[in-house]
UniProtKB/TrEMBL annotation:
The keyword Membrane applies. It comes from the Archaea. This is Uncharacterized protein. The keyword Amino-acid biosynthesis does not apply. Keywords: Membrane, Transmembrane, Transmembrane helix. The chain crosses the membrane at residues 32-50, 56-76, 88-112, 118-136, 148-168, 226-246, 258-276, 307-328, 335-352, 358-374, 386-407, 419-443, 455-478, 498-518, 530-552, 564-581, 593-615, 1238-1254. Coiled coil: none annotated.
Length: 1263
């Protein structure tokens, strides 16, 4: 209510015409101004030394940028470009900020920190001296006049701003300040460690971020919340520039004042939807917004953001609006002004170096204007075009330099990079085209003259049409039966076309008012504003719709979809809309009151948008504990500027920007914490050749992802903890060398992945070894001169015990709570399907395993049946086998053996299963023992001291887990697998050939340094062993790592290939059932086979062909392929049987049966590919992760993966790629039924229009 009342009061003051105006005259001699400038600089220096952070930052913003800008404008003789003080102040601030940012960036790159701080101090000091010299000259006193009504308006406007930001922009909330925090982090890194930062990612907002960084250098203060608060005046630049453009269009101060309040009015009409669909509570309101509800989210969240956030876009928009003002002034004069080319170039460079799309639109608008006017305005357009061309070249070159640095001099041919190259230099080409057209016009001036004449005559029809479209659009959009969604294809609204009625909702009252304003301007002969702004609106719709069609056709245009160009339509409508409001209210008290009320109702939308952030702020508020942790973490980061922060969740990653400088490596860090194998997990610790990170974990919010993957389960407990603050822990990650595909040292992976394998990975990584991982049964293992074994090879068979609770998690469903020593399922509520599945520790299953599960029933409902299951063959959520116990109300226990196929469950024997007996109590500890004999396909189970039960089972090599149904709380305390593993290494071959074999074992060992036990001085031990025992360079080299690893452009969970050709060095085949082999019309049935090795006899690559195959997982650099038919031409096959016998097969072979194929970094070439579970891809739209279908001869090069993520490098240049299901792009025809439903508005508008015409005719006929 306060917000809406302020809107009404501001509008009332804007159009108020008192009989006698109050004049306040301020007389300031030039020397006084000079003394104030000196005092300001001294105050800035003192505030930064004492320090007084908030004052230093405020003075840096409000003193440094304007002073530098005024000095630069005076030196370039640009004072006459803008007539009034507001326009000159805005122009000075824009070019001053840009120049200040360029100097800060250059000083940071070439002087480093803290040399760049002294450079910006010298810069401000020199410009201060220059300005002081100007104002110290003898001259008349400068008279500053401010009218009383203007003073009242400014007071109410500032109160409105304060009220809006009070609830809209809390400074200790990472939402909505997430973007601002990210920009703050970038700006700190640009001045603290720019070369490292620019090598990570191209920064399209480079100069704005360096400007922010320069302010912090000048103030010697680096505090995210404080910077966010101080930078709020930057958010007002675009609003003030829009008011300045309105003054140039309308030519009166009242319209300018009205334009100042338009962003707060917000123009949209989404509040109508809220009135009709009021949420029952703040929680329900938040849920509606979080779900991406089109009618709420789009209407509330779009328009104010580009104009009201202190981020690069409003800064660039302000430069764009000043560019329009300059263009309008030149067109009105139909001539040139001294310095106009320089001013245009500076503004164009400012746009392209802070937020490029505005520069692109400005250059495109110049081209259209030159096309219309041609030679008639050559003298006016030529300087603007020339300056814009020079500024565009400079801005494009600067942006291209950042792309070059980010790609380390080797640009990748990716759509996004090509798009950036085109976007950077498109303005320069457009400005050059405009320059040519302005000199050699093509004769469209008569056509424009006729259009302008038509506009003066037909404008009433246009304004009536705008009113009709607004009413009809709002009616269609708010209709309960309307199921439109521009986000059907993309929740972020990147892809697709914007429905026509969304324009009406977003533009709101600006649509009819703007068209009415165009009518008034056309009647008054203001040809230039109508032409320039009208062309801008048409250009914005055309460009946005064209990009929408490109996206809908599968051509990636980046994240600049159609909806982002609605902003330019709003800019084109806002000045004439403000002028229309001023004309409607001029001299009419009743109309002033009515319009004030209407604007207050429209302002409800902005207040509701602000209250949204108030509701959600508690969810994103930075707690006192987090602030304390960030203070400590910030000290570490400033002392070690190349370190970065690695956190399990987006929330913690974004919030940790308060402790900048940090770097972001992955868009969503939770993915890397879910990785199950070190080949993926360790790679992030050398991403982009960064120094090792600090690991930040808030256990209150991050415990689930932190304990899921290899990092949290294996690496984290072994990292040194730096400090703890409440529930927050910060760890120090050392230098870790990731496994590489072609390392010089091979780590042999045994058939079972136990703790010794993880420790071997850590030892080699800590030692900085250039190593790779090779499966123990892979014959390519013997091609390495140095082989590391994580177990003792002297034993023919060894007993292995695996603690599953310390194994990475592969899948969870329902309520699952993980901690370091147990897993709790149930979530204190009665529900089905609480599942947790661990990574499969076997790639070659043993003949038999024993499993021990100790679980505690803590809470349950005795009135219902409760179940505890052990999952032993998990494929996916809809396909797995399990065995378990059912507890009844009478404490009876039944054993069941079941399977889930395509989501449907079956039990053998049928429910309720086999009765085991009675127990004394259900709550408390229980012990479940399971014995699997896979060769005999038998499973025997025992619960506590009850009867032993056996089942016949089928098994296909799936993962292991547990499932709980209906129990309120069950805690799994222990879960061990015990098995005997055969040693499959060829020891004779190892001994016969010249190689070094290193065994990591827990027993004491002796080397040159004496006796060392495993676990003590691990890094030293590994380095000494490798240095003393090998004669090759086994040191990890980061540069070589990046040249050898392909950048994956597809990440998915599984791919089904049809008509597949596979290329690899060899294939490891593990039968899941009996296997049939066809050779020369002979059939062999192979049973009791452990595995097969298929190689090429010519020592070249091996080819295999499949009708259909499914890649569902990986083991590091090995892809796991499931198939039931495989043809291998000219292959050598070694068949290893269970009893140790080895047989050979040669020639063209056809294999049939269910089997698993392991291939190291294979290449798949398929005629058709169905890709499921896509997490990221750049094949179609880099910003959309959806299932894909690839038709045609496409090549998939496997990079690495685990059971959750598969990374591929895909060449589909000759293929057709489609989303599955296909993108459901909105069609305008879908709204036809609703348009017909509300067709009565057509009748109403026609009647009103006819009545108005009749009224005019009657007036003419009266004497």
């Amino acid at each position: 209510m306060i917000h809406s009342s302020l809107i009404a009061f501001s509008f009332f003051i804007a159009v108020w015409r008192p009989g006698k105006q109050l004049r306040i005259l301020l007389r300031l001699p030039r020397r006084t101004v000079a003394l104030l400038l000196v005092a300001g600089f001294v105050a800035l220096v003192v505030a930064s030394i004492i320090p007084i952070p908030w004052l230093a930052l405020f003075l840096a913003l409000m003193y440094a940028a304007p002073v530098v800008g005024v000095s630069l404008a005076e030196a370039l003789k640009l004072r006459g470009i803008f007539d009034d003080a507001v326009g000159f102040a805005l122009f000075s601030f824009i070019i001053g900020s840009t120049f200040f940012g360029v100097i800060a960036l250059g000083a940071s790159l070439f002087l480093g920190f803290p040399g760049n701080r002294y450079a910006v101090l010298v810069l401000v000091a020199l410009h201060t001296i220059h300005v002081v010299g100007i104002y110290s000259k003898k001259s008349k006193s400068q008279l500053i006049e401010m009218k009383g009504d203007s003073l009242l308006f400014i007071s109410s406007w500032l109160t409105l701003i304060y009220n809006f930001y009070l609830i809209y922009y809390p400074n200790d909330v990472y939402l909505p300040g997430e973007d601002m925090l990210r920009h703050y982090m970038w700006s700190v890194n640009l001045v603290r460690n720019p070369w490292k930062f620019l090598s990570l990612s191209p920064d399209n907002y480079l100069v704005f971020h360096s400007f922010e960084g320069g302010l912090m250098l000048l103030a010697n203060c680096y505090d995210a919340p404080l910077l966010n608060s101080v930078l709020l005046p930057v958010a007002l630049l675009s609003t003030l520039a829009l008011a300045q453009l309105t003054a140039n269009v309308a030519g009166n101060p009242a319209s300018r004042n009205i334009a100042l309040i338009l962003p707060f009015v917000f123009s949209g009409l989404g509040w109508l939807y809220l009135l009709l669909n009021r949420p029952a509570s703040p929680a329900a309101y938040f849920a509606a917004l979080a779900s991406g509800s089109e009618k709420v989210y789009r209407n509330l969240m779009y328009i104010p953001f580009p104009l009201m956030w202190p981020v690069p876009q409003p800064f660039s928009v302000a430069a764009f609006l000043l560019f329009l003002s300059l263009l309008l002034k030149m067109v009105k004069l139909q001539g040139t002004l001294p310095g106009s080319a320089v001013a245009a170039g500076l503004l164009m460079f400012s746009m392209l170096s802070t937020h490029p799309p505005q520069g692109i639109m400005a250059a495109a608008l110049l081209t259209l204007l030159a096309l219309l006017w041609g030679k008639s305005l050559s003298s006016a357009l030529k300087p603007i075009c020339l300056g814009a061309h020079a500024g565009a070249l400079a801005g494009g070159a600067l942006n291209m330099a950042t792309v070059y640095l980010a790609l380390q001099g080797a640009p990748r041919l990716e759509n996004l990079m090509l798009l950036r190259v085109a976007a950077f230099f498109a303005p320069a080409l457009a400005a050059a085209a405009a320059l040519a057209l302005s000199s050699f016009g093509i004769g469209l001036e008569p056509l424009f003259a006729r259009l302008a004449k038509r506009l003066r005559v037909r404008a009433p029809v246009a304004s009536a049409l705008g009113t009709f479209l607004l009413i009809l659009g709002v009616s269609v959009a708010l209709d309960p039966s309307n199921t439109f969604a521009t986000s059907r294809a993309d929740p972020g609204w990147v892809v697709g076309l914007v429905p026509w009625f969304i324009y009406a909702i977003l533009l709101g009252a600006a649509l009819p008012l703007g068209l009415y304003g165009y009518e008034l301007l056309a009647r008054e002969g203001s040809k230039a504003p109508v032409a320039v702004l009208g062309l801008l609106a048409a250009l914005a719709v055309a460009v946005g719709r064209t990009l929408g069609f490109f996206n809908a056709s599968g051509i990636d245009t980046g994240y600049w979809g159609e909806k982002r160009f609605v902003l330019f339509v709003y800019i084109a409508l806002a000045p004439p809309a403000a002028y229309a409001l001023e004309r409607l209210a001029r001299g009419r008290s009743l109309r002033v009151a009515i319009l004030s009320l209407l604007l207050a109702l429209l302002a409800v939308n902005a207040a509701v948008s602000a209250s949204y952030w108030g509701i959600t702020s508690e969810r994103g508020r930075i707690s006192d504990t987090e602030k304390a942790a960030f203070d400590k973490l910030g000290e570490l980061l400033w002392a070690n500027p190349n370190r970065w922060v690695f956190s399990p969740t987006l929330r913690s990653r974004d919030a940790s920007a308060f402790a900048a400088p940090i770097y972001y490596v992955f868009a969503d860090p939770s993915y890397s914490w879910r990785w199950q194998v070190p080949e993926l997990s360790l790679a992030i610790f050398r991403a982009r050749n960064l120094d090792p990170p600090y690991v930040y974990i808030n256990w209150a919010t991050n415990s689930q992802p932190a304990r899921s993957g290899w990092i949290g389960r294996i690496l984290l407990p072994r990292l040194p903890k730096l400090f703890s603050v409440g529930s927050i822990d910060v760890y120090d990650a050392p230098l870790l060398a990731p496994p590489v595909p072609n390392g010089s040292v091979a780590l042999a992976i045994p058939p079972v992945w136990d703790e010794s394998v993880d420790e071997a990975y850590l030892l080699l990584s800590l030692a900085g070894v250039n190593f790779t991982s090779v499966l123990g049964i892979d014959p390519s293992l013997y091609s390495y001169r140095v082989i590391v074994l994580p177990y003792d090879t002297s034993e023919e068979n060894r007993t292995v015990t695996i603690d599953l609770l310390s194994t990475p998690i592969a899948f969870t469903s329902g309520s699952v709570n993980l901690d370091s020593e147990s897993v709790e399922l149930g979530g204190r509520q009665e529900r089905l399907g609480n599942i947790v599945v661990w990574r499969n520790p076997f790639y070659l299953f043993p003949e038999a395993i024993n499993v021990t599960v100790r679980f505690e029933v803590r809470e349950y409902n005795p009135k219902v049946l409760n179940y505890f299951y052990f999952i032993y063959d998990f494929k996916d959520e809809g396909n797995y086998r399990y065995v378990g116990v059912m507890f009844t109300e009478q404490n009876k226990v039944y054993m069941l053996n079941c399977l889930v196929t395509n989501g449907k469950a079956y039990c053998i024997p049928a429910w309720p299963g086999i009765f085991l007996g009675n127990i004394d109590r259900v709550t408390g500890d229980h012990l479940l023992n399971l014995s699997f004999n896979f060769s005999k396909r038998e499973l025997c189970t025992t619960l506590d001291a009850l009867n032993r039960t056996c089942f016949n089972i089928s098994f296909s090599g799936g993962s292991i887990g547990v499932r709980v149904d209906r129990f309120w709380a069950v805690k799994v305390k222990e879960m061990f697998i015990t098995t005997r593993i055969r040693n499959y290494l060829n020891l004779e071959r190892l001994k016969a050939e010249n190689r070094t074999l290193i065994v990591f074992q827990r027993k004491p060992v002796t080397n040159e340094t004496g006796e060392i036990r495993y676990g003590e001085n691990l890094t030293i031990y590994g380095e000494q062993i490798l240095d003393n025992k090998t004669h090759i360079n086994s040191t990890f080299i980061p540069e070589r790592y990046y040249s050898e690893i392909n950048y994956a452009n597809l990440v998915a969970s599984n791919i089904t290939f049809y008509n597949l050709s596979l290329t690899a060095s060899n294939l490891l085949v593990i039968p899941l059932d009996s296997l049939r082999v066809y050779q020369h019309n002979k059939i062999q049935n192979l049973t009791s086979v452990r595995y097969l090795i298929i190689e090429s006899p010519s020592e070249k690559v091996l080819n295999a062909f499949y009708v259909q195959a499914n890649v569902k997982g990986g083991i590091g650099f090995y892809a796991k392929l499931e198939a039931d038919r495989m043809y291998v031409p000219n292959g050598n096959v070694s068949v290893y049987f269970d009893d140790g016998v080895i047989s050979e097969l040669k020639g063209d072979l056809l294999f049939e049966g269910k089997f698993l194929v392991l291939a190291r970094r294979p290449i798949f070439t398929a005629q058709r590919s169905v890709i499921r579970g896509v997490f990221g891809q750049s094949l179609l739209y880099p910003y959309l992760a959806r299932d894909l279908i690839v038709i045609g001869n496409a090549t998939f090069r496997f990079v690495r993966g685990d059971d959750s993520f598969l990374y591929f490098f895909v060449d589909a240049s000759n293929s057709k790629i489609m989303f599955d299901p296909s993108l459901n792009i909105y069609s305008e025809w879908e709204s036809v039924p609703l348009v017909l439903k509300y067709s009565y508005w057509i009748i109403v508008i026609i009647c009103v229009f006819i009545a108005k015409r009749l009224q005019r005719l009657l007036k003419r006929r009266r004497p």
